[in-house]
Amino acid sequence: MSSIGLGKIILLGEHAVVYGYPALAAALDRGVRIDAVPTPAGGSMRVDVPSWNLRVKAEDDHAFARGLCAIADAIGLGRPSLTLVGDAQIPPGAGLGASAAFAVAISRALLEYSKQPVTAASVTAAATASERVIHGNPSGVDVALAIAGGIGVFRKSSGLRTIQPAPLRVIVGPSGAPRSTAAMIERVSQATAGASADARLHELGALSDTGTNALLAGNLAGLGTAMNRAHALLGELGVSTPLLDGLCEIARKLGAYGSKLTGAGGGGAVIAIAPREREAEIAAAWKKAGVTSFVATVGARA
Fold first, then answer.
1. Distance of CA 105 to CAs 22, 32, 64, 86, Å?
2. Which residue, among 271, 275, 274, 217, has the nearest Cα to 12 in the 3D structure?
3. Mean pLDDT by 10 residues, the chain (302 residues)
């Protein structure tokens, strides 16, 4: 039986969430599946995800290899002769929670293999160990959504509070531009002098509350307005790029309610919400700009 971790988007609140503010986030309807298969020839524990061109052994000098070892150590497993074969429907390094989806799927697979309880708490602990190795100071929202799915408001102090809005269609455009979450977190720390009272972080947190209320009321125009303002603030914090700004502007000119970067920024992905009849036109325009997008109905349960 495959073990699953879901990808995610952050509708509002990225970076501010690291400082204790709320983030409105949603699980994608896709992610990473992992099957644990004993390796007949023996040898090191390894991971093979063909869609990512990823094939690493536990001892390799690679971020995902280090994450794999952190998970194994967190559950006291050691290094069994095991191949973790994966199928990923989201790209890595795109701000869509791929590393957390990977970590959650691996954690579930290894816990099941070792006949330990596969609980939300045990998966969270193991997957978070991987995220810390890869990202340094993750907020925790990616792991929470990769495990639970759905749509919710996340705070570091209290975790994920799920909400039940109407299904939300989102156009997701992975830009293909590489970036480092850890580097973007450090950039925001420098821009704010590490102060949670920074006015931009405070406003980003407030926009999460505004957008949540709009989403629950079915007010997509209100949600879009909050998204547009959030993107501008993230630009002020130094985590947007000319490509991301341009993709957002294209979507807005073609009738999107709102568009913004999602995740850490510095590359990664953009998202847009738009009337359904505008989605194809926005996707085509992004394609001309070199970005192949997909439409996700967010809020799937794991």
1. 26, 7, 13, 9
2. 271
3. 91 93 94 91 88 93 93 92 93 88 96 94 95 80 90 90 92 84 86 90 96 96 98 95 95 98 88 97 96 87 56
Number of Cβ within a 10 Å radius of residue 198: 17
Please name each of the domains of the chain with its CATH number. Answer: 3-155 (3.30.230.10), 164-298 (3.30.70.890)
